[in-house]
Amino acid sequence: MPHPSVNRRDLLPSSRRKFIRTVGAQVIAIPLGAIAYPTLLLAADKPKLDPAEPTATALGYTHTAPNPNKNCEDCQLFKSSGTAKWGRCAIFSGKLVNAKGWCYSWSA
Questions:
Q1: Are 30 and 41 contacting, i.e. CB atoms less than 8 angstroms apart?
Q2: Report field, pTM of the whole predicted structure over 0.85
Q3: Is the pLDDT of residue 51 over 90?
Q4: 3-state secondary structure 69-91
């Protein structure tokens, strides 16, 4: 039971406002963080492709392209965040490929 001199109505609105303000700030901050740091989302916790993996071997993937004019960063299947040395490939999902790499699936 609250003390008789404390009005319960004075306590509830301020804590409710504080709660709404805090939750509102978090709801706005999460998407803004995702927009501000896309490179962290792109390469977060993804392993680099090992050329010895079965799929990489079957497609002749190498970290260094035999022809410097045909490498992963110029391929349509490659997704990078600008000047990154590693990026995603539509063929090797879940792995990062070297921007200077190459495989038989290279497409201009």
A1: no
A2: no
A3: yes
A4: CCCHHHCCCEECCCCCCEEEECC
